[in-house]
Design goal:
23 strands, Rossmann fold
C-alpha cells in the first residue's frame, strides 16, 4: 500500500518514543491513554516502527468491528506496510502486520499455525490476562522468546483484579484526561450528581466478583416512578442532546427506553443478545440522528464512540473506577465538522443517578508525565512514572494529599429533601469531575456570588433577577460581562475560562499556602474589620471581598443594564 503517512501530534510522538524505549529495554510495556488520545494511532506508530525495520507484528482485538477499524488506522500511519487479517472469514499470515481476532486465533488449531512474530500488540490491553490472551502470549513467547509485548489501554484496572503484572512489568507513559481537555482534544464534562433518594439502598448492594449485584440494583432503580423522574430531570438540562444511558440490566434498559418514548423522545436499546446486524442498524440510526437516546447495559462501555453524543446518564453504580471512566468517556469526543456538519459540541453533561461519582470522585489522576524519574510499585514491583498515584498494573494507590482526595459535592440544592410520589425529592449537585481549575471560588453573600481571584484578574458568578451572570475584570481588559443566562454551570465555565486566560494560575493556585493564612492588617483595615470580627477569615477570602468592594459599583451597573435589556 502507498500513500502519505499520517502525522502524529507532539504528545503522541512522546508517547510512542517512550513506548519504543521501554520495549527495547525491557521487552514489554503498558501505555495508558484515554479515549480521544488516539490510542490506535499511537499503537500503530509503535508497531509500524518495527515493521518498517523488517520485523513482523500481530495486533490483537477482541471485537470484529475493531479489526477492520484498527487496520485502516494502521495503514494511514504506515501507508507502505503490508497488512493481513486473521479472523473467522480470513486467515492470512506472511504480512508485515496481521490484525487478529482473539477468539479466532486462540483456537488451538489456529494457534498451532501461528508463525514466530517479533511484536505482539494488544488493543484494550487490560484484557491481556484473560485466558484466551494468555494462550496467544505464551505461544508467541514459545515461538520467539524475544517477542516484544505492547499493551495499550484507557483503563488498566481490570474488574476482576487480575494484575497485569503477569504480562508486563512497567508503564512507559500515561496521557491524562486533563491534558486532552486543556489541549481542546476532548470536551469538558459538566457533572451532575442526582440523588433519587435511593443512594443509601444502593450502598447496601453487595459486590460480586466483577461488579455490583446488578439484579439487586435493578430492584432498586427500575421503578416506573423513578424512570419517569429520570427523564423529567434529564429534559430540564439535556433534553436537546443526544444521550447514551447505562443501566443495570437489559430489562432496566428496555424500561428506561420505553419511558423516554412515552414522553415523546426517540429512544432504543442495544443489548448483547441482539444480532450483529440489528445492533449495527440501531447504532446507525442513532448516528444518523434518527434516535436521540440509546440505552444499554455494558455493550457500549468500550470500543464505541459517537462524537455528537453530549450527555451520558449513569443509572447504575460501578464498583470499579475504570468502568465509570469508560462510561463517561463515551461523551467526551469532539465533533469533526466534516463528518457532522452543523453539529456544535462544547461540553458533555454527565448525570449520575447512582453512586459512582460519589464513590470514586475525580476521574483524573493528575499525573505529571514529564516529571523526572521512575519508581517501583511496592505491591507488584512494576516500574512506573514517578508521579503516578495509582499503579496502572496492579491498582495500588499511593497516599494522596488533600488535593487528590475524593471530591465532595460542591454546589447543591438550597432546600432539604421533600417527598413526591412516595420518593425523596431529587437533589441535584454539581461536581467538578476533573477538579482541574487552579482557582478557588469563594461563596459570598449566602451563595449569591461565587468569586475567584487570579491576582492579575478576578471573576465572579452572580445570581441576579433569576439569571446567572459571569463577570470578570483584569488589569489589561477592564471589567467584562462574560455570560448572562439561566444556567449556573455555563456561567461558571465562562468565568473560569476568563480567569485561566487573564489570571496568574501559579500565584493564585488553590494549593498555595498563603491562601489559608490569616488576613493582613492592611486587608482588615481596607475591609473595615477588627481582628475579633475576622475570625476564620483567610487572606484569600479577604482578597476576594476587596475585589468585590472595589468593583461592586461597576458590577451593579452591568447587571442592571442587562436586566433592562432583557425586559
Amino acid at each position: 500500500m502507498t500513500g502519505v503517512r499520517m502525522q502524529l501530534r507532539p504528545r503522541q510522538r512522546v508517547f510512542v518514543d517512550k513506548a519504543i524505549a521501554a520495549l527495547d529495554e525491557r521487552g514489554n510495556t503498558l501505555g495508558v491513554a484515554p479515549t480521544g488520545a488516539g490510542k490506535t494511532v499511537m499503537l500503530s506508530a509503535v508497531a509500524g516502527g518495527y515493521v518498517r525495520q523488517g520485523a513482523s507484528a500481530i495486533i490483537l482485538q477482541h471485537r470484529d468491528e475493531l479489526v477492520s477499524q484498527n487496520r485502516a488506522t494502521f495503514e494511514k500511519v504506515n501507508p507502505r506496510a503490508s497488512t493481513g487479517l486473521f479472523t473467522s472469514q480470513a486467515k492470512q499470515w506472511g504480512y508485515g502486520c496481521t490484525f487478529a481476532m482473539v477468539a479466532t486465533l486462540a483456537n488451538d488449531k489456529n494457534l498451532d499455525g501461528m508463525p514466530p512474530v517479533d511484536v505482539l500488540a494488544i488493543d484494550e490491553g487490560h484484557h491481556a490476562v484473560a485466558p484466551s490472551y494468555l494462550k496467544i502470549i505464551h505461544r508467541a513467547k514459545e515461538r520467539n522468546p524475544k517477542v516484544k509485548l505492547l499493551l495499550v489501554t484507557a483503563t488498566p484496572e481490570r474488574g476482576d483484579r487480575k494484575a497485569l503484572r503477569a504480562v508486563v512489568d512497567n508503564v512507559a507513559d500515561q496521557i491524562t484526561l486533563k491534558e486532552l481537555i486543556e489541549a481542546r482534544l476532548l470536551v469538558r464534562p459538566r457533572t451532575l450528581v442526582v440523588d433519587l433518594g435511593v443512594q443509601e439502598e444502593l450502598r447496601g448492594v453487595k459486590k460480586t466478583i466483577s461488579d455490583f449485584d446488578m439484579a439487586a440494583v435493578e430492584r432498586i432503580m427500575d421503578k416506573t416512578v423513578l424512570n419517569d423522574r429520570v427523564v423529567e430531570e434529564w429534559s430540564k438540562v439535556a433534553g436537546d442532546r443526544q444521550t447514551v444511558v447505562f443501566c443495570s440490566t437489559v430489562a432496566h434498559a428496555t424500561h428506561v427506553a420505553e419511558t423516554f418514548r412515552a414522553m415523546g423522545y426517540r429512544a432504543a436499546t442495544v443489548e448483547g443478545k441482539m444480532s450483529a446486524a440489528e445492533r449495527r442498524e440501531t447504532l446507525a440510526a442513532y448516528d444518523r440522528g434518527e434516535l436521540q437516546v440509546i440505552t444499554n447495559v455494558a455493550v457500549l462501555t468500550e470500543g464505541w464512540d459517537h462524537q455528537p453524543t453530549s450527555c451520558v446518564i449513569l443509572l447504575r453504580p460501578s464498583s470499579y473506577k475504570s468502568t465509570m471512566i469508560q462510561m463517561i468517556g463515551r461523551g467526551l469526543r469532539k465533533v469533526e465538522p466534516s463528518r457532522y456538519p452543523g453539529v456544535v459540541k462544547d461540553d458533555c453533561i454527565v448525570m449520575d443517578f447512582g453512586t459512582s461519582i460519589l464513590t470514586h470522585g475525580s476521574i483524573e489522576q493528575d499525573v505529571d508525565i514529564d516529571a523526572a524519574g521512575v519508581k517501583n510499585c511496592p505491591e507488584c514491583d512494576a516500574l512506573v512514572p514517578y508521579q503516578m498515584r495509582d499503579c496502572a498494573i496492579c491498582g495500588f494507590e499511593w497516599p494522596r494529599d488533600e488535593n487528590g482526595a475524593l471530591i465532595a459535592p460542591g454546589v447543591g440544592s438550597d432546600s432539604g429533601p421533600k417527598t413526591r410520589d412516595g420518593l425523596a425529592e431529587f437533589v441535584l449537585t454539581e461536581v467538578d469531575l476533573l477538579a482541574d481549575s487552579p482557582f478557588r471560588y469563594e461563596n459570598l453573600f449566602d451563595g449569591l456570588v461565587s468569586m475567584a481571584s487570579g491576582i492579575d484578574a478576578w471573576a465572579a458568578v452572580i445570581a441576579f433577577h433569576g439569571h446567572w451572570h459571569a463577570i470578570g475584570g483584569g488589569r489589561d481588559v477592564g471589567i467584562c460581562h462574560l455570560a448572562d443566562n439561566g444556567d449556573r454551570l455555563l456561567a461558571m465555565s465562562a468565568a473560569d475560562d476568563f480567569l485561566r486566560e487573564h489570571g496568574d494560575a501559579s500565584a493564585a493556585n488553590k494549593a498555595k499556602r498563603w491562601m489559608t493564612e490569616p488576613p493582613s492588617d492592611k486587608q482588615l483595615a481596607m475591609l473595615g474589620l477588627q481582628p475579633l470580627h475576622a475570625l476564620g477569615l483567610t487572606k484569600y477570602r479577604a482578597t476576594c471581598l476587596l475585589q468585590w468592594k472595589w468593583s461592586e459599583k461597576a458590577i451593579r451597573g452591568i447587571l442592571e443594564r442587562s436586566a433592562r435589556m432583557a425586559a
